[in-house]
Structure formats: C-alpha cells, structure tokens
Fold this sequence. Notes:
Blueprint: E1 3-12, H1 21-30, E2 43-47, H2 59-62, E3 66-69, E4 72-75, H3 80-85, H4 96-99, E5 103-106, H5 108-112, E6 123-126, H6 163-170, E7 178-182, H7 191-195, E8 201-203, E9 210-212, H8 222-226, E10 232-235, E11 240-243, H9 248-252, H10 258-261, E12 268-276, H11 280-284, H12 291-298, E13 299-300, H13 305-313, H14 318-326, H15 328-335, E14 340-341, E15 352-355, E16 363-365, E17 371-373, H16 388-395, H17 400-421, H18 427-437, H19 441-453, H20 456-459, H21 467-473, H22 475-486
Helix pairs in contact: 16-17, 17-18, 17-19
Amino acid sequence: MNIRSQISMVFHLDKCIGCHTCSLACKNLWTDRPGTEYMWWNNVETKPGTGYPTLYEDQEKYDGGWVVEDGKLRLRLGSRKKELANISYNPRLPTLDDYYHPFTYRYSDLIDAPAGDDQPVARPVSMITGEDMDIEAGPNWDDSMGGSEIYAANDPNLKALTEDERRKFFELQQLVYFYLPRMCNHCLNPSCVAACPTGAIYKRGEDGIVLVNQDKCQGWRMCISGCPYKKVYFNWNSGKAEKCILCYPRIEMGEPPACMHTCPGKIRYLGAILYDADRIEATASAPEAQLVEAQRDLILDPSDPEVIRQALECGIDLKIIQSAQKSPIFRFVKQWRMALPLHPEWRTLPMLFYIPPLLPVTATLSQEGCYELDSSFFSSLESARLPIRYMASLFTAGDEAEVITVYRKLLAVRIYKRAESVGDITMETALQALKEAELTPEDVEGIYHLTAIAGADERMVVPPSMREQAVALGVEADTQEFQEQRGVGTLYWPTRGL
C-alpha cells in the first residue's frame, strides 16, 4: 500500500441555516481585490436550484470531470491533442453571466443629489468597468427558491423525478428546500490538475490540498472546464487561475479554515484521513452503482495496527496518524457510513462529504391541503417531502438504497434519543429502529455527541502540517515535476515523502 494523508471535510446539512457567514468570511479574507470580485470560493446554494455558476452540474454543457471508456479512465474534456487544439478557444467555459456581473453602488449619488421631493438612490455600477448597470443576477440570486420557476425548476437533478415529486417542490402549500454549502473538494483524483496544460495546479504531498502555482499558470483556463464543480476561477486582472486554498496558512498554524471557524450552525467538520494512493485509479473507475462504497473502501482505519505500520513506512508522521485517529471524518464517512460525496459520478473522488438533510420530517400535505401525520412522531421515508430520488441524484450517482440507508440512521438516532429523553416513543420501538439501521446505542451516543454537543476542537481536528519536513524532502517540487512529466491524465503524485 502507498498510504497518504489527506485533509477531508464533512458538512451536516440538517444544521445549515443558509446564513452565508462562511461565504463572507472567505470573501473578506481571500477575494476582496481586483479580478476576484465575482469569485466566491465558498458559497451556499439553495436546492433545488441551478447553483453557482448557473447550471454547473450540466456536464453535457461543460464536460467536467472524468468518464470511463473501454474500462479506462479519461478526462471528459478529451485527449491532450484535442485540448491543445482548442487551447485558444474553449466554448466549455462559464461566462461572466453564468456567474454574475459584480456590482457596487455609487453612494455619492445620495450626497450630491440636488434637493427635491423624491428620495435619492445610489445607482448600481459595475465593479469591473465602473459603468452604470442594471442588476439582473447575483451569486445567490435564487436564495430560498427566489424566482423558483426560473431557477429552481431548471435544476438538472429534477430530471429524474416524476411530476408528482416535482410538484412537492413547487406547490406553495408544501414548498421545501435546503441549503448546500460548496467549496473546493480538494479531490483525490482532481480533474483540474489533469486538465492543466502547464502543470501549474498541483496537490500538496503532505496534506492533499490542491493549489495553483501562480508563477507557472499561463491563464489557459482548461482547469476551469476540467473541474466539474466549477471551483477554479480566472482572475481577469492578473490573468491567472485562483481557487480555494483551504486556508492553508491557518492550517499550518493549527487553526481551522475561516469558513469553518465562523460557521454559526456548527455544520462543518474537518480532519485527516489515511488512504491507499495505489487504489485511486481503480476506485475512480468503479461502476456508478459502486462509486460511494468504493470511495469508502479507499479510506483506511487509522487505528488498525497494520495500517499504522505501513503508514510509518510510507513516511507518514506518527502525529498525523494520531490526528487521523481523532478525526470526525473517519467516523461519519467510514464507521457510521452517514456522509456522502457530492456527485460521485464525476469520479474526482471529492474529499468533502455531506450528511443529507432529513428535515422536514413531521408531516406531508395532501392534494386537498390537509396535513397528513405519520403513525409515528417522525414521517416515514416513503412520505418524505424531499424525494429520495432527488437526493440520490446529488449524492450517490442515483443509488437510492444508499440514501435510504443514511436516512434510516438519521431517523434511528432521533427516535432513540426521543425515547430516552421524552418517553413518548417506547424503547422497544427505538431499539428496533436501531437494529434496522445497523446501529448500536454506543453509535447513537457518538453521533449525537458529534452532532449536537462536540466543541470546536472535536469537530475540527486540524492535523499538524509537517510543512518543514515536506519542504526538506522536496515533496512539493517533486510533485509538480512529476505531474508535468505525466501531463493530462495525472492520477498520482510522487511516492516519496509525507
């Protein structure tokens, strides 16, 4: 095994209140300068919705991620020759209109306006050209399903739903939506890295953070097309690509990223995981129905003596192994099997996982407008207002059974804790729910603690960066040189180092 360490994340969507504090923290820290006005490295989308940039999930339009052809993994963008032939013309890029035209206001209009009967207003002006403009879109224009018939109704994930399931989203009496925070996934098999013609994008050997070398970047923007999540951006002022750096200066100081540190809902979890780099290609090439399980299998148990032994042989520092043992990511993703990757069918092996939202759970609405309560306090999965098929399109490449398994665990935890604390559900019923969900009372207490009680040091176990050792070993330099030699289709980075 070629064991590596990777910083990974879990977002608990039942706890997200859509406040955008994470987005503003990132914006103020990293993208408040010329050329980055339209960039939101961290953004919070309303689902159903078309997202940011608009319809980024439509890979027939953008050709992002990977595909398997004749049993081999290749970039959806095409071959290296095809990429080089189109290097000066790339129709698969989002336009500024797909993001939004950044604007501010000419506040001097409020002061300089002549006296009159009408209240003066500040005229919106472009942050790029400085000219007057009409505001027609924003980075979260369909927040809480605003303009749902234009934006939410065009969500690509709705294509698999029946008319009745679509109705559940858009009829006023039973309107339902949830929030989906997004940032760079710092994937194990990043298609942005493979698409870069100059080798400017690379994956740090010590922690797996994906970065852009600003000295090497030539602004070809193939990385933007290659990333299916559209989390690489082009700085029009510098002519370079930019993206989320996972606040690595904070990570190196032992602090969590700004978006995670400021989250009021405490939905974000961070920690190190160990994985076998030799199995990346096989995992990413798995059939769609097996992608989620294959990615789980790629993650190794940091408490397994054999894994520890081989990790030490591969140069993983003992402090990182100990950090991985405390990581909440392993428990949510591997041990409890509750967190799922976003669009695993894109085969980038994202290292950001989501616990799907269960709310609302207490009732559904009939066609006559009457509430219909389930026989138990919580609604059944069959009557859930968030269609299982929709959640499967988002998180499991269409595998509804995998989503149902996660939901049964979420329901079982709630039923057990209610039986324990309120008593209106019998403990016999609660234990039966745990049995069906394949959980133990000890699992429930662990899930409950991490979800509702755990402090910041338990939710965000920042691993030691070991940056000095990495630089001494030349890992970063070797990584870039190796990827330049491999060119498009890079799946691995050097085996030497941390």
